[in-house]
Specification:
The protein is mainly alpha-helical. The chain folds into 2 domains: about 210 residues, Rossmann fold, CATH 3.40.50; about 80 residues, Tyrosyl-Transfer RNA Synthetase. The strands form 2 sheets. It has a 3-stranded parallel beta sheet with strand order 1-2-3. It has a two-stranded parallel ribbon with strand order 4-5. The longest helix is centred in the last third of the chain and has 29 residues. The radius of gyration is 21 Å and the shape is globular. The structure holds adenosine-5'-triphosphate (ATP) and L-tryptophanamide. L-tryptophanamide binds next to β1 and α7. The site of L-tryptophanamide (LTN) has 14 residues, from β1 and α7.
């Protein structure tokens, strides 16, 4: 039986949080055996906004350790750092040269992020082309992402189809975005109208970071914004977005259905009990992950060895694909 190929990318911009775990990493780990998997720490993507070099270096290793701690198995999957595989940057250039500028200017993430910055880097505009290459150079069929990245995967589809049409070949697989239903969008605890996000996670009380101590997790849940009522039920009323978010987190962590989740809080005296209940299940879920993370960061030689092995496997797939593209586009191959 032919297994589907899945490509997942995550940026090492620090502050990896519960939204990333429930919306992305956890689902990646769960499906490893059924698919051919690539897990990529996309450090080149992080350069699209200014970075402190020492911090980026630390965060890249740290994120790789988090992924391994969350259950990504280097025997079952290919886990690697994007910049270790030169085909990504090289192939991005080739894709740039068939991608119309207007496609990139339309991207909502570019419009949002560039509006918040004084000086916008070229890399930020080009970000979705680099991402398209990540996916296309591995012939990925599926790309698990949160709702916010769907437009970028659709752009990767457009780029794949354009290349195939221009060179009259069935060369790139046209990938599908895979969006998980539960936990697809975890909102900020301090403001349930915005998604929990790494870039806001330095603000105390916004996010649960995967490496937070139990006390800090308790602090953030205790201060979570709710509403002036006392009804604990799922709801799409914007007024009740805070309570809905807490229930969504509880549901994603416990795997219970809506009715069972609401039943667990039927006897609650108020939102205080809800917050404590959610905090407890989150703390217990993160405890073993944190222990495995610490062990990996205490032995970086082993971590680097695992990543070198992953890069070698990734190169063996993506470099021939990019070399073939070069030939198709009229570049002379070295003799
Ligand atoms: P940034 O704030 O820099 O945009 P981010 O927190 O959105 O960062 P990404 O690196 O963009 O994190 O995303 C990593 C993965 O986690 C992606 O698949 C993304 O869709 C998913 N993800 C991010 N935030 C959430 C969230 N709040 N809920 C569910 N999934 C999320
Ligand atoms: N843009 C994505 C990260 C990313 C990615 C990818 C995701 C880069 N390359 C390839 C899936 C496939 C983000 O910020 N979440």
């Amino acid at each position: 039986m032919n297994k589907k190929t899945v490509f997942s990318g995550i940026q090492p911009t620090g502050n990896i949080h519960l939204g990333n775990y429930l919306g992305a990493i956890r689902n990646w780990a769960a499906r490893q055996a059924e698919k051919v998997n690539y897990f990529c720490v996309v450090d080149l993507h992080s350069l699209t906004v200014p970075q402190d070099p020492a911090q980026l270096r630390f965060e890249t290793r740290s994120l790789a350790a988090v992924l391994l701690a969350c259950g990504i198995d280097p025997q079952a999957s290919t886990i690697f750092i994007q910049s270790h595989v030169a085909a990504h940057a090289e192939g991005c250039w080739l894709l740039n040269c068939i991608t119309p500028l207007g496609w990139l200017q339309r991207m909502t993430q570019f419009k949002d992020k560039s509006a918040r910055q004084e000086s916008v880097l070229t890399g930020l505009l080009d970000y979705p082309v680099l991402m398209a290459g990540d996916i296309l150079f591995y012939d990925a069929d599926e790309v698990p992402v949160g709702e916010d990245q769907k437009q970028h995967v659709e752009l990767a589809r457009d780029i794949a189809q354009r290349f195939n049409a221009l060179y009259n070949a069935d060369f790139f697989v046209v990938p599908q975005p895979i969006i998980p239903k539960v936990g697809a969008r975890i909102m900020g605890l301090d403001d349930p109208a915005v998604k929990m996000s790494k870039s806001l996670a330095d603000k105390r009380g916004h996010a649960i970071r995967l490496l937070d101590e139990p006390d800090e997790i308790m602090y953030a849940f205790k201060r979570a914004v709710t509403d002036s009522g006392r009804e604990i039920r799922f709801s799409d009323d914007p007024e009740k977005a805070g309570v809905n978010n807490l229930l969504t987190i509880y549901q994603a962590v416990t795997g219970k259905d809506n009715a069972a989740v609401e039943a667990d809080f039927a006897g609650a005296r108020g939102y205080g009990d809800l917050k404590m209940g959610v905090a407890e299940v989150v703390i217990e879920t993160l405890r073993p992950i944190q222990a495995r993370y610490k062990a990996l960061m205490d032995d970086t030689a082993e971590l680097d060895r695992l990543l070198a092995y992953g890069a070698e496997q990734a190169r063996a797939v993506s470099q021939p694909k990019v070399d073939e593209m070069k030939g198709m586009m009229g570049l002379v191959m070295p003799g």
